[in-house]
Design brief:
The protein has 187 residues and is an all-alpha fold. It is built from 9 helices and no strands.
Length: 187
């Protein structure tokens, strides 16, 4: 149990939570991502293996500060890339989700109260969200675009520091007005 507690602060934890039923908070997290934990008998070994692989893939410190690690420099943090690769096989859905992941990640790159950067990031998130719905609903995926968007938001802002930054971003938008995106939505 102590090992699993260490993982809760790591970005790799989001991947590991898909595979294990550790304690009440972890079960809630796994259910929010709509995955099912493995049986109790297999849990400890599988948790250890998945955690170690995730730590190797995302780096030893796991979260790498506010923006996290992006080894391939595609604008998407490595742990979020793992989620996208694992759960979205369709190339169009994957591309739409990657656009949304980059848009959410851009929020973490805003360093100071910068109204222009906040406005740009908000427009990018709006376009990406509209793209998700356009692509997923065009393929008859029902409520899945909303779930993918929520999962990406939870994975992107998965530490207290990241959540605080996202709350500051949203506070900077307080009172702002914007319209729904038009024209080409998907990159």
């Amino acid at each position: 149990m102590a090992f699993s507690r260490v993982l809760t602060g790591l970005s790799a934890y989001s991947l590991a939570a898909h595979y294990a039923d550790l304690h009440e908070g972890d079960v809630r997290h796994a259910r929010n991502l709509n995955v099912h934990p493995v049986s109790t008998a297999k849990r400890p070994l599988l948790m250890l293996i998945v955690s170690l692989v995730a730590l190797i893939v995302t780096g030893c410190s796991g979260n790498h500060g506010l923006t996290g690690k992006d080894a391939d420099r595609n604008g998407i943090r490595d742990d979020v890339d793992i989620y996208l690769t694992r759960y979205l096989a369709d190339v169009h859905q994957s591309n739409a989700a990657k656009q949304a992941a980059r848009a959410y990640q851009s929020v973490l790159g805003i360093r100071s109260p910068n109204p222009d950067a906040v406005r740009r990031a908000n427009l990018d998130i709006g376009r990406a969200t509209a793209c998700l719905y356009e692509v997923f609903l065009g393929q008859g995926s029902g409520d899945r675009p909303g779930k993918v968007s929520l999962d990406l938001e939870r994975l992107t802002f998965n530490t207290p520091e990241r959540r605080h930054h996202y709350q500051a971003f949203n506070a900077a938008l307080n009172g702002a007005a914007w319209s729904l995106p038009d024209g080409r939505l998907c990159d």
